[in-house]
Each structure stands twice: as C-alpha cells, then as structure tokens.
Amino acid sequence: MTSRKLVYKTLEFENINDRAPRDLWLLPWAVNHYPAEVEKILETFPGDLTATDPCYKEKDISRGDGYKVGKSIDGWGCIFENKAEGYIGEVKEAIVPVNDEETDWDDTSRVHFPVEWMSIDIDQVNAQCRKTDKFVQSSVCPRPFEQLQFMRTTQQLMIDLAVMPSGLEKFISKMHTFYCDLLELWAGTEVDCLNIMDDWGAQQSLLISPEMWRKIFKPLYKDYADIARRAGKKIFMHSDGFTLDIYPDLIEIGIDALNSQIFCIGIDNLREFKGKITFWGEIDRQHILPYATPEEVKAAVHTVRNALWHNGGAIAQCEFGVGAKPENVYAVYEAWLW
Fold first, then answer.
1. What does CATH list as the number for 3-60+118-335?
2. Which of 5, 199, 277, 292 could form a disulfide linkage to 288, CB 3.0–4.6 angstroms apart?
3. What is the model's pTM?
4. What is residue 97's DSSP assignment?
C-alpha cells in the first residue's frame, strides 16, 4: 500500500489492519544538535506525509531566518527578533501603529499583502505530487489570528478584539478574502490536502473566550474547510495549547485532522471525539519527549492508541524540537508499529 492510500484510509476510518501513518516534524534545533540520530530515525521510520515546495514565480518580501539569532521579516512585513539559535523569534514592534485610543486599525500602510504567494507554478506543484506516493500537503498555511498578532503584538490585539474597531473588522475581511483566494488556488492543484493553523490555547484554556472565537474566527475556518471540501481535498489544522472547548466546532465545520497538544488537553477529555476527527499527533513535547524514558514514551503512545484509534483516526506525529531526546523520538515510532 502506498503512503498516500494509508493516510486516506486513516482519515476515513478504514484503516483496519495497517499501521498508523508517520509524520515527523523536525525543527532546526534537532538537526543541528543530533544530525546522526535524525538521519537514523528518518531511515528507519520514513514518513508518509510530505509537502510541496512553494514553487513561486515571484519572490516575496521576507528576509532572514526566523530560527537564527537576529531580525527577520515575514511575507507580510512583520519584524521578528530572535535571541537564541533554533528557536522561533518574537514580534516586538507593531507594524500597525497604536494611537492614543489604542484601538485604531485605520493605518495599515506598512502591511504588505503577500500577493507573490499567488504566483505559484501549478505545473511544478503537480509534477511534485506525481513524483511521490506520499500524501502531499500544500505549502501555504493561513493563520489569521497569529498574523494579526504579528502585525499588532499579542497584547494589543487582545485589546482590539475586545473593542473590535471598525478598521479591524475591515482588515480581517480583507485578509480573509486573500486567504480564501490563496486556498482556492491551491485547491486547484493535485495536492491531497490544504493546511491552516493558529495557536489558540494557553495551558488551561483558550486565549480568548469560546464565544468570541465562534463569533469572529469560526466563520473564517469554515470557509477554508468548505474550499477544501468543494475541491475534494482534505483539510488539516494545527493549534497548540488547551483547545478542548473548540474541538466540537472544528469537527462541525469539517476539519479532517487536527494537530493539537492532546496530553495538555487530557486524553480522557478527547475520547468522545474518537472516530469523528483524526488526531494528527502529538506525543507530549512539554514533559514526555524531553524528560521521560523510552519505556515511558512507549507507554504514552499505547495510551493514545487505546483511547483514540478507531480503525484509523490517528497519525503517528511528533515534533523533534528543543529539548527532546532523540532516543525518545525513536521510541515514539517503535511504539506505533503493530
């Protein structure tokens, strides 16, 4: 069976006798610190999911490397500062200025909509899809909530969402139209799924109220999921933190696979969603991957499988990032074999 077919069977809860698909997320820190161990893991447990190169015909305005010390700029013009190698930088400067009332969104002149992302070479994308038997994800990933934070800073955006000035409403609508156009473009390629993301959870709750989330952001994600569905594509989403409150909403709008911190949320809290959505990982990177023994890692994987596997409905995903032990990442994929 090809990797692509294995992933589809898993997403559609038809994976009765086969293993779980594998998906390893490698951060630069892991590659820099454990190159030999990374190579061994990849050779022993090859992944089943991949993503295309962007294949842009036009270069966007992004500059620098967000994982290296110093400043970098993303495709929207947001400025990141990074003080440690291998980590992701932070935004310290708002490119949408704050006026005296702290609610103004009228001046967005420094925001650059990355229209260059619309210049993809569809023939190249399709050629990459045809060259692999893996499940292929799009290389773009709309993230409206986080991108607004990058433009305004997190603290100020929280104030803005509470007040909701008319300028912000207009900007969200404009950004959403851009993201929809981008996803429609990718939906016309031969990729298997579209990706979206936003980190919505703190350690014990959402970052905003579920009611505010449903009013402002749920309709955006529903439109993204509808675009995928109309084109016969799957749609995957990533969201860190405690996101239990919005799991039913994400299932309702048609998210096929959700990458979330299931150990932070509590696996017992997620049992009711078994067979309704695919759990796209993960194994706890806060405590288990950096501090547990390989035996404890394997026990954690078995807990996930026993609680959430339903003729599929789970992808063997984990992140090899800062602090994770290579022997524990290896143990994750050993444990997912059956």
1. 3.20.20.210
2. 292
3. 0.95
4. -
